[in-house]
Each structure stands twice: as structure tokens, then as C-alpha cells.
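Q: What residues go here?
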């Protein structure tokens, strides 16, 4: 099962959370950024519906696969 870590950091004149090098929008203070990261982490753990997805790879080939709705990552917030 994948593991996703949200980290609270100073960013763009305020505070943000980052996941795999991608920043959220800036928040005015650390507490607000922490609350937003906790919400985002919780939402990622919510199961969805099992569906067939299609996607194109960099080489231009299309693929279809079934994405299980209960295949959700473990999440944590470091802050």
C-alpha cells in the first residue's frame, strides 16, 4: 500500500503543506496549514468506487485497467 506524507513548511510568505515536492496554496499561519493538511490526508483515505480507467503513457500507448475503490494510501502529517 502506498504511503503519502504531508509536510508543513514555510512557503510564499506564509505556510503550506507539501506532498512529493508539490505545494498547496499558502495559508496565513502554521495552524491553518496544518488543519488543511490533516483534512487533505483524511480525504485521501476515503474509499471510492471501483472503476475502469484509461490513460495514455509517454510513448503514446493507451491502457485500460480497473482501479479498485478501496485501494487507498496510508497518510500522515508531519508538522
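A:
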Amino acid at each position: 500500500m502506498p504511503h503519502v506524507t504531508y509536510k508543513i513548511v514555510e512557503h510564499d510568505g506564509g505556510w503550506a503543506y507539501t506532498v512529493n515536492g508539490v505545494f498547496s496554496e499558502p495559508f496565513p499561519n502554521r495552524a491553518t496549514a496544518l488543519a488543511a493538511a490533516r483534512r487533505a490526508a483524511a480525504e485521501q483515505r476515503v474509499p471510492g468506487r471501483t472503476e475502469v480507467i484509461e490513460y495514455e503513457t509517454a510513448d503514446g500507448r493507451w491502457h485500460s485497467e480497473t482501479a479498485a475503490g478501496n485501494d487507498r494510501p496510508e497518510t500522515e502529517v508531519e508538522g
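A: Context that may help when evaluating the design: Residues 3-78 form one domain. The helical segments are 30-44.
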